[in-house]
Amino acid sequence: MERNAMTNTKLRGAGSTLEIALRIQQMSGAGSRFEWIPVERLDSGLYRLRNSPGMTLGLAAGDVIRPKGEGDFDIVERGGNVCIQVFLGSVPQNERPRVREAFENAMSAMGGRLDGVSPGVLIGTVSVSATFPRIEAALKAFEGVHRGITYMFGNVYDIEDGHTPLNWWLETSGAKH
Questions:
Q1: Closest to 34 in 3D by CA, of 70, 76, 82
Q2: How is domain 81-170 classified at the architecture level of CATH?
Q3: How far is it, in rounded angstroms, from Cα 102 to Cα 105?
Q4: In sequence order, what are the residues at sequence separation of 6 or more whose Cβ sits closer than 8 angstroms to the Cβ of residue 156?
Q5: Would you state the torsion angle of the CA atoms of residues 22, 25, 29, 34, taken in this order, to the nearest 10 degrees?
Q6: What residue segments make up the domains of the chain, in order of their start?
Q7: pLDDT the model gives residue 172
Q8: 132 HSE (CA, 13 A, CB side)
Q9: 39, 56 in Cβ contact below 8 A?
Q10: Three-state secondary-structure class, residue 109
Q11: Are strands 113-118 and 150-153 parallel, antiparallel or unpaired?
Q12: Contact of 128 with 81, CB cutoff 8 Å
């Protein structure tokens, strides 16, 4: 594991397998937890996310960040993608592979992709140009067929209140709403 002495940023791997440790925002006062996210190293201490995070809020694949240390970061540039986190909740273990395949197909149908799978969570990325009405319709249909799941957008609403839209897509060139 590599640690940037200037920013106290944790990195591991190299090249296409480089990952950065980002702090997971928590509602409770529990200690810090981190999520390892695949990144591409850019100039001037910047990193582009290769995949959307499963637990770190406010980011999606393609975003460019500047680490501030201890897993914190500033967003320098939005990549124009929406992060979708699907929580499998009460979905029985034997049905999860089928749900995963269906989610991957739903993402693909919108030009998106399945970015990751962790215990109980599926992470997807889709371009904001797919439009929010289309993304939401696809997710509501998916949720209606696969009982026991819930989903959220990882980078659409304010991290603090969970309701205020961030509106970054209004500044993304070519985005349709």
A1: 70
A2: 2-Layer Sandwich (3.30)
A3: 5
A4: 82, 165, 166
A5: -20
A6: 9-77, 81-170
A7: 66
A8: 12
A9: no
A10: helix
A11: unpaired
A12: yes
